[in-house]
Structure formats: C-alpha cells, structure tokens
Amino acid sequence: MGTPTSNRTSTSNRMKFPHLRQDFAASLVVFLVALPLCVGVAVASGVPAELGLVTGIVGGLVTGLLPGSSLQVSGPAAGLTVLVFEAVSEYGLAVLGVIVLATGLIQLAMGALKLGRYFRAISVAVVEGMLAGIGLVLIAGQLYSVAGAEAPASGLGKLAGLPGLIADSAGSAEALASFGLGAGTIAVLVLWKHLPKKVRTVPGALGAVALATLVTLAFGLPVATVEVKGLLDSIQLPGFESVGELASVGVLGTVVAFVLIASAESLFSAAAVDRLHDGPRTEYDKELMAQGAGNTVCGLLGALPMTAVIVRSAANVQAGARTKASRVMHGLWLLLFAALLPAVLAYIPLPALAGILVHAGWKLIPLRGIVSLWREHRGEALILVVTAVSIVAISMFEGVLIGLALAVAKTAWEASHLKLEVIDKGAGPVQAYLSGNATFLRLPKILDNLEALPQDRPVELDLSGLHHLDHACRTALENWAERHSATGTEPVKVTAP
C-alpha cells in the first residue's frame, strides 16, 4: 500500500522541481569553483578569509533567490580586489562595511529607477580597460604574495619593485619555496584543460589548491597559510562612527567607484551568460536590484562587495543548471562548509591562493581583443590602453574617470563628423556642400575652408545634407556669408538644412 503513495510523492516533487537533479549537480560544481576563489579574493583584499565566504553565501542565498538573471552566480570578484584593498588600507575594515552598504542601497535605487539598462551603454573599451588595469595591478601585487613578501602600496610601486623582489627571493630558501609553490599552482591551472576528462570534473582552481596543500603538508614547506578566525568572529556590523565616514569625499569617491565597477561588471556578465544558454533572458533592472540587495546585506555584515562573476556563472551553465536553484544551493554548501569545516582553511598555503589570483588577473587582460581592436577601431583601443595605464599609474577611480572622459570626447568628436565638398567649374558660382553634423567642435575647420574660397566669386552654400546644425555654427555661417557678400560679389545663396 505504501508504494503507490511513495510514487505519487516522487512524481509530485518532480513536477514542482523538474530540474532538481541537474541543478543539484551544477550547484556542487559551482561550490567547488567558488570556494577557493572566495578565500583567495578575501586574502588578497586584506580581509579575513571568512568574509569572502560570507559574500559568497549572501550571493547564493540572497541574490540567488531574487529575479534578474536566472543562471549567473554572484560572489566576491577578483575585479574589485584592488579597490577593496585600497579602501581597507586607507579607511579600515569597519568602514568597508559602510561603503558596501551604501553601494547596495544606490544599486537598489538605480534598479528601481530602471537605470540598469543604461549600463549597457558604457563604452566596452572603458570596461575592458578597467579590467585590464585591475588585472595588471592584481598580477603585480600577487607576485609578492607568491614570493611571501609584502607588496608596495601603489601600482607603479608594485611594478617597479619586481626586479628587487626577484633578487631578494633568489637568496632566501623560504622565498624560493613559496615562489615554487605559487608557480606550480599557476602551472597546474594552465595545464588543467589538457588533463583527462575524468580529472577535469574537478574544477581547476580547487585541484590546484588541493595539490599545493598536499605538497606543503607532505614536504613541510615553510610557507604562510590562511589565518582562521571563525565565521562569527570575522563579521563586524558597521557602527555609527563608521557611517559618519560617508561625509568624507574620499569615501564617497570609493562608493561611486564600487557602484560603477560592480554594476557594470555584473550587467556585462549577465549579457555574456545570456549568450551561453537558451533560457530566460536577463531583466537588467531587476538584476541590478538583486545585486543591490546582496551588497546591502554584505555591507550590514561587514563583508566584501559582490558582483556577478563570469567564471562561476559559466561553470553553472556548463554544468547543466536549469534554474536559479543551483546558485541558491551553492550558497547553502558554502554556508555549511564555513560552519562545519572552517579549520580546513588553515591548511591552505597563501602562495597557492596568490597563484590562483595571478592566473585570474591574466585572464582579465584582453590581449587578443586589443590586437583586433587596434586593427579595426584604433580610437577604442587607445581608450582601453589609456584606461588601463591610468589605473596602474594613478588609481582605480581616477583611471575609470579618465577612460569615461576619453570615451565621451571620442563620441562627441565622431558625432561632429563633417564633410565639405567644393565644386568650382572655373566660371559661375562656386558650389559648397556641407554634410554630416556641424557642431562647434568642427567650427574652426568649417570657417578655414569657407574663407579659402575665392572672394571675387559668388558662392552657393548647400546645407541640406546636414543632420545637425548647432547655434554656434549657424551664427558663424551667417556672419561669414555677410562678410563674403560685402566684398561686392553677389549675396551668398544658402540652402537651409
């Protein structure tokens, strides 16, 4: 009598959760991908490792439940590591929670105002330049961690100090052991895709960290490992004193940078994930609100900021996920790990995590994209390179602003494209045709060409090909026509646009 009831229950569950088996399997894959990255990003950001897990948990259990993009996965991202490290170094860990809280509230507001779709209008060259700059600073900084040394504060300082780092490491057994472990981790990550398919069922980052941990334990290598504080001990609720720091211009600038980078990276990731599957498309405003809700909770817990992460999202899709249940369950597995097995973190060697982030930083630099962009759109390639160099040379926030300013200037310049065609048959009026967009940016060139026309000949100025004629150009053209007509020739005949 019990068998039919059992069958009915099983059938009912399949109807309620038709893709549970696929989502369950995908959630385990995403968990194994996310675990080393959450810890690595936290350590590189200068915060307790557990806070990276907190952000991953919130990304699964909070953001994962909300509508927006059904298959992309959120958590701490390598793309924000440099900015978070700078914020923690300058303002302290307590203020980080306030910055992340403000970021989340602003994202919620922007999503409610339906501004999410406009992030797709941000120049791709600026976003790629931003990621390339982050990648360069991340690589340079983590190379010091690979060698077990402390990195300089500035991006240029990190790059300039690399020759000295190599020289110092060559004479230290501990540094060589640390460097060898980090280099081995990078080599495993690079070669992982060439291993047998059965081996590759384990995510590369997890496999590399596991191997590095085993090597460290087996040979007793003198390398630093992750410091464990415990999940609850790492959480710091922001106090009223920390909230008062929002009055600081520097803190507000950091909030703006967090909002811009986290939102752009999340929504660009959503667009990329949509190309990987045939399921429901991303609702950008709802996704921005989901990211905002996650960052608000992370801020209240004093954790790292979150973005949607393309590595975890791609792993989720490729593992066969069908609904948002997979990303919610991955957050549950992270929570269970943090609650039941936190002591395992203490065995993970820091050079291995640094190696993972060096590899991640390298993947942020679009080398092939820069080459193809230079062949087809040199202006865009220049914006990308200048943005990246500015981030390395100055700072993240100023570098992004410089990139955005260049993109706006390039767009304005292209929008003012203007062509002047002059037909002079030697007798009769000189015919001048203006086409395109006549703006004040092109005014000097327009006047130079018109004033070069013969002063003793009548002129016919045809403006019918103009798409736009601004007030400054209209006034200048009228003044030129009066001056030309005053020389005794026939009045300039103007065909209006």
UniProtKB/TrEMBL annotation:
Membrane topology field:
Multi-pass membrane protein
What Pfam families does the database record attribute to this sequence? Sulfate_transp
Ranges for domain SLC26A/SulP transporter: 20-387
**Primary subcellular site in the record, as a coarse category:** membrane
Keywords on record:
Membrane, Transmembrane, Transmembrane helix
Membrane-crossing residue ranges in chain numbering: 24-44, 51-71, 91-110, 122-144, 175-192, 204-226, 246-268, 332-362, 382-409
Protein name stated in the entry: SulP family inorganic anion transporter
Say which species the protein is native to.
Streptomyces liliifuscus
